[in-house]
Automatic annotation (TrEMBL):
Keywords: Amino-acid transport, ATP-binding, Cell membrane, Membrane, Nucleotide-binding, Transport. Residues 3-235 form the ABC transporter domain. It comes from Paenalcaligenes hermetiae. GO terms for molecular function: ATP binding. InterPro entries: AAA+_ATPase, ABC_transporter-like_ATP-bd, ABC_transporter-like_CS, BCAA_Transport_ATP-bd_LivF, P-loop_NTPase. Gene3D superfamilies: P-loop containing nucleotide triphosphate hydrolases. This is ABC transporter ATP-binding protein. Belongs to the ABC transporter superfamily.
Length: 235
């Protein structure tokens, strides 16, 4: 098990947002967290990453209880986030982004990610390697944000709204790259809204509603019940 979340409660000061969330991800699994706006997806992510304190419950990452760990320590243990909004550095080149973050956080990786390997995954980044972060299109920034996370060789890659604001063609390119990562055994947690596409990409899905897990199951179960989409996802 890479990630195990047990009865997690958290929020902002006195305002509680998550009410007993359970979630587990096994090595090599691709799992989604789905739900309408404001249901607690980003709050869950911030709590997992140590940016919000845990009120109750436990989080285990790669076998260790990380409840009180700092964001920095959690990152070094091998959790990498591709943040909503990408947050590329305007004053670093593409190549510098990729070389600055190289690390070996998953000793079990047989073929570690390098900047060169990221260029193989995203040839467009190779063409842009000397461009600054602020000279890239939204899609290129997203590829760079994924590449920057990959070169840390994470045990768990988390994508927060990775396809947000992208043209359909570019969005599909991002999904296809996730297919490649999945085939290579990368464990991935995806937070997004595109349920139809994610059904083809992920093994397991969790739906959050008002800070609680109201449904979870595999893609076949999710695909077989469109009432779930209407009720909880507004599709
Ligand atoms: N910094 C904050 N301080 C107080 N309340 C917050 C803060 N950020 C979010 N919330 C509240 O927490 C609840 C869950 O928000 P959250 O951002 O986790 O939802 P979400 O499912 O990620 O939605 P979205 O897709 O819009 O990001 C909402 O009611 C929101 O208003």
């Amino acid at each position: 098990m890479i990630l195990e979340v047990k009865h997690l409660e958290s929020g902002y000061g006195a305002s509680q947002v998550l009410f007993g969330v359970d979630l587990s991800i096994q090595s090599g699994q691709v799992v989604t967290v789905l739900g309408r706006n404001g249901m607690g997806k980003s709050t869950l992510l911030k709590t997992l990453f140590g940016a919000l304190p845990i009120k109750k419950g436990e989080v285990f990452f790669a076998g260790q209880q990380i409840n009180t760990w700092t964001t920095d320590k959690i990152a070094r243990a091998g959790m990498a986030i591709v943040p909503e909004g990408r947050h590329c550095f305007p004053n670093l080149t593409v190549k510098e982004h990729l070389t600055a973050f190289v690390a070996h956080r998953n000793p079990q990786t047989s073929k570690p990610w390098t900047p060169e390997r990221v260029f193989e995954l995203f040839p467009r980044l190779r063409e842009r390697q000397n461009n600054m972060g602020n000279q890239l299109s939204g899609g290129e920034q997203q590829m760079l944000a994924i590449g920057r996370a990959l070169v840390t060789n994470p045990k768990l890659l988390i994508l927060d709204e990775a396809s947000e604001g992208l043209a359909p063609k570019i969005r599909e390119e991002i999904w296809q790259c996730l297919d490649v990562l999945r085939a290579q055994g990368q464990t991935i947690l995806i937070i997004d809204k595109y349920v139809q596409r994610l059904m083809r990409l992920a093994d397991h899905h969790i739906i959050l509603e008002k800070g609680q897990v109201v449904w979870q199951g595999d893609s076949a179960q999710l695909g077989a019940d469109p009432t779930l989409w209407e009720r909880y996802l507004g599709v």
